[in-house]
């Protein structure tokens, strides 16, 4: 979803820009995504230049985001888009399951 058509920014706290800057500085403007080396299995952070801050665990059901520093990390655009795509796919799957269950229980036998 493009930010131009999103209302998600309305959920940001008024001090988001300051919080964002603090997280980027804390993480030294380096992506904190954990990467696994497929040759050795060793894990390390991506370390690529980061200019985006993301919630490690996103809010559910329209609840406010947890903006505590322990729930925020700097991500590069690539890993941020990968994480967002994964979360979107999971939400679509949950929505499909919910609709399927609603359709099942709308059958006349359950009326």
UniProtKB/TrEMBL annotation:
Residues 89-104 have a biased composition (Basic and acidic residues). Residues 82-111 are annotated as: Disordered. Keywords: Endonuclease, Hydrolase, Nuclease. The keyword ATP-binding does not apply. CDD domains: HNHc. Transmembrane segments: none annotated. GO terms for molecular function: endonuclease activity. This is HNH endonuclease. The keyword Zinc does not apply.
